[in-house]
Fold each of these.
Amino acid sequence: MSRYVSTKYQAKQADHDGSIEYTLKEHQMWAELYQAQISLVNRHMIKEYIDGLIHINLSSHRIPQCSEISEKLKKITGWQVKPVPALIGYDRFFTMLANKLFPAASFIRNKDDFAYVKEPDIFHEIFGHTPLLTHPIVAEFSQKIGQLGTQLATDQYAWLARLYWFTIEFGLIKNEQGKVVPMGSGLASSPTELIYAANGKEPERRPFEMMDVLTTPYRIDIKQPVYFVLESFDQLSEIASRDLISDIEAAKKMGLQEPHAILAQAC
């Protein structure tokens, strides 16, 4: 089972130094995405993400090289970013996380997918994920997910992936004032879903409960009908300290919940 769906995009190949040559058109797409998203994240994302964005200090006009980001991240939490093809298996994904290597799909979306891209591109990977990886609790949690993933059987991968999906990718969290705000990387990098998750009336916002999270189906090609709300970043540490293998086995016995009506309608 792959982390990503099949893609219409062609992966960019890194040279022997790990650098990727992007075209002027691709850099312009980054600049347009950055300009569209920067004011939105400053208005809606959790403060810790915004602090991380300041630490990483991304270029607003060109696609950064993974080596540039790695140099900054390594000094903060020890993580690095490595370009990969768009399609990697869960086994490789978890192994990389276990070694503090974040896999970054190397292509960037085109105009047709500007507002919402079904598979993660370099904008999602860098703009969405790396600011959170400056936070020590998120960095430790991500490594824990990877370490656990390397211990799992293949039929357990998707259950662990749901935990990652509903926290790091599309999690919500309470800020210091107790307001529920977006945290996840998939929200930070999506011009439309960030506003939908922050203010929309359509999605459900449920308190984080492990069995509910592990048994809730999701799709990657539509806006999420369900989000889970963390009480704080410290809750990620509490989750990481659990016997997650036992949680996964308990969830497997329960089975997946019936798909949300929005998921069924989208089929």
Amino acid sequence: MVINQIEQKESTIKKNGWLILLVIIFLIAPIFLTEFYLTVLCEALVMSLFALSFNLLFGYMGQLSFGQAAFYGLGGYTVAMLIMKIQFNFWLSIIAGILVASIIGLIVGYFCVRLRGIYFAVLTLAFGQLIFSVVFKWHDFTGGDDGIQGVFPPGFLKSPVAYYYFILIVFLLSAFILWKIIHSPFGQTIISMRENSERTEFLGINIARYQLITFVIAAAFAGLAGAIWVPFYRSVAPSYLTWIKSGEPVMAAILGGPSLFWGPVLGMFIMTFFHSWVLGFTIYWPVVMGALILAVIFFLPGGILGFIQEKVSQRKEMKNRE
């Protein structure tokens, strides 16, 4: 027992050490990166937050959502319309973006959590496309296919470096909150629902209520990701709400490993930087990305981070036997 406790403490110290090192690297990144790669890094951080919100449903609750981009886009559109149409306060606009995404998530989730498996996935896709259609067709209110242009942040955040640090702070705080949620009694309950929903229900737990709360939390963080990205990118368009956009966190989770908290983050970083690199050679980057995802599915079914963890566990077992 004592040896196991010592080993657990050592592994925790190592994990914390790696996290601290990564945070330091992110803090000094603007010193070494060009403006182009700093923009790519900002996109990777925002999309990683989007992927973490999705993985709350997929990796921990065990339900696949194909409509997560709807909440991402709604957060972005709320900020864009409030800033451009009524010159609303930037910070309050971001809060409003989170609230709008949460409220729509509550409405959509009320219907979706009644279903499971493929039916849940198809219904989220249907709602996502419905919201996309409303945004795309309502030209007088949302700008239609033109979107909304010229969405600027406050003066002190107009610099790419300043806005990068803002995105980094939001990402770190959001990741910390999501980590706490997952490792709380609430988080353990949704994991038990994923493992065996019938037994969890027999314990007297209202599964639909827990799933709805999880759905709203995921929608809120997706809305936050969209809300902070639009002022950096200076515009928003209906493409933010498409099913293709919803597929990005799915691919990131598969690539990095949905069973691990940082798996989708690793997957999204690989996808974002790989996309930027491949675009320098060919416009057919989806073909290359698809081949990469297929290779991971066939050869690394637990994702890249899952594969690494498996190898580390095997080495520890071999050392213990020796």
Amino acid sequence: MIALLIGAGVALLVALIGTPLFIRFLVAKSYGQFIRDDGPTSHHTKRGTPTMGGTVVVAAVLISYFVTHLIMWMMNPHSAGPSASGLLLLFLMVGMGFVGFLDDYIKISNKRSLGLNARAKLILQAAVGIIFAVLVLQFPNEDGLRPASTQISLVRDIPWLDLAFGGTVLGAILFIVWSNLIITAATNGVNLTDGLDGLAAGASIMVFGAYTIMGIWQNNQACGSPKEAGSGCYQVRDPMDLALLAAILSAALVGFLWWNTSPAKIFMGDTGSLAIGGAVAAFAILSRTELLLAFIGGLFVLITLSVIIQVGFFKLSGGKRVFKMAPLQHHFELKGWAEVTVVVRFWILAGLFVAAGLGIFYAEWVVLL
């Protein structure tokens, strides 16, 4: 618990202090956001607001994680250092953040609201996702437990939903496909949620708060050996290190939200939204709670569904729309809701989804006792 407090504290300070410094740098370079012409007219006043703020969040997470482990080592040389699970999560977060950074930089340099084309973005995301999926099936600990398994999970691995039913090679391929579906859904979900001042950051704080609680619980109820599975204990590698990273991410986003809340002085950009989405997906896979992500990240799911429904209905109906505009948050803006009203009410929805996810997580454990 001391490590969590240290990590969260360092992340909060780095984000709080680093964000305004980064804003000054971006302003000096004239690196501002370009706004879509077909969006709400109220957004046109945001043109020129510094973007790529997710760079600060990623930097705060990296600094805090390694500084925390250094401090813990200085306090106790026998303490565990960075874990395989923690490093793999950082890899996916940074990798997706880099894809987002390229997208943001192209927008800024070309002075337009469009960055990487869809194919290039998909290829880069797939490359990072495939590497991550291959690596998480490696690095067994002394008990033979790997960061992830080929079994699909809800609140723990489900033995009868094992993707390796057809053999090791087929299982690995199916796991790579499954993992990339989760990664693509999470990154796009957070990316679509971004767009109103503080919406994605505030919702993500709650999501990472949930993973902090679950990581602590999984650590306290960890199986003593792989043979104990099914007794209510959890077979998760490095749950406390995952809890540390979740706490760090929440704190970093709190520091960023101080400057991102309406009226935003900086946007997270695709750098931030893709990095956060990558981290969310990694938590779901590494904590063995893949299907539970649909509840914990329910707001991201809802907003993504609004886009799918809008596009699908538009094509099938020959140009008709279900919503005034998608993603869903812009529909309510065009109905006359103030931006702050939309953000706060969507935060409430995010909190309710997170509470439902935690309720399912805890209820399953109680039933097994």
